């Protein structure tokens, strides 16, 4: 049974966060839960149904659930926003969270490749997340980099 209550943007959004802030928060929570390939698409010029798609990949059913649950917690408790609908949680190959202006897609690898939303919506500009997400790869590389000669005894 579907948990979706509305396929459209909120007509009277009374949230404390803008749709871009929500998209950024979803990306951050996803990264905090070790999601990969985090993409935010700006959909505002392509559809009036929503403003942003957040697309992320998780490695397991447990991880997809954790990402979904943590986004719900963040949005409800910290950002004052309530989910309008959720699809796919039980199947856990593609969880869709509908927050009206922001729609979050949490995929496993195979399902994300199959549906290829980034290609389907190729005209949508990608939101720059460089100021929002931590660069785990750079952090890991700096941890394993050799010390410079001036730092060695």
Automatic annotation (TrEMBL):
Compartment list: Cytoplasm
Gene Ontology cellular component annotations, sorted alphabetically: cytoplasm
Family: Belongs to the Iojap/RsfS family.
NCBIfam families: rsfS_iojap_ybeB
Pfam families, sorted: RsfS
This protein's name: Ribosomal silencing factor RsfS
Keywords linked to the UniProt accession: Cytoplasm, Repressor, Translation regulation
Species of the source: Blastopirellula marina DSM 3645
Record has S-adenosyl-L-methionine as a keyword: no
Function comment: Functions as a ribosomal silencing factor. Interacts with ribosomal protein uL14 (rplN), blocking formation of intersubunit bridge B8. Prevents association of the 30S and 50S ribosomal subunits and the formation of functional ribosomes, thus repressing translation.
Gene Ontology MF terms in the entry: ribosomal large subunit binding
Predominant location: cytoplasm
Oligomer status and interactors: Interacts with ribosomal protein uL14 (rplN).
Biological-process GO terms, alphabetical: cytosolic ribosome assembly; negative regulation of ribosome biogenesis; negative regulation of translation
Top-level taxon of the source organism: Bacteria
SUPFAM superfamilies documented for this protein: Nucleotidyltransferase
Key word Transferase present: no
């Amino acid at each position: 049974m579907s948990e979706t209550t509305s396929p459209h943007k909120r007509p009277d959004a009374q949230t404390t966060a803008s749709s871009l802030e929500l998209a950024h928060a979803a990306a951050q929570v996803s990264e905090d839960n070790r999601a990969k390939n985090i993409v935010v698409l700006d959909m505002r010029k392509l559809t009036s149904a929503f403003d942003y798609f957040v697309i992320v990949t998780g490695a397991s059913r447990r991880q997809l659930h954790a990402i979904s649950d943590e986004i719900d917690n963040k949005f409800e408790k910290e950002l004052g926003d309530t989910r309008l609908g959720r699809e796919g949680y039980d199947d856990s190959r593609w969880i869709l969270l509908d927050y009206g202006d922001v729609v979050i897609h949490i995929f496993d690898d195979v399902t994300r490749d199959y549906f290829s939303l980034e290609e389907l919506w190729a005209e949508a500009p990608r939101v720059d997340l460089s100021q929002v997400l931590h660069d785990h790869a750079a952090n890991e590389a700096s941890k394993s980099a050799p010390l410079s000669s001036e730092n060695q005894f």
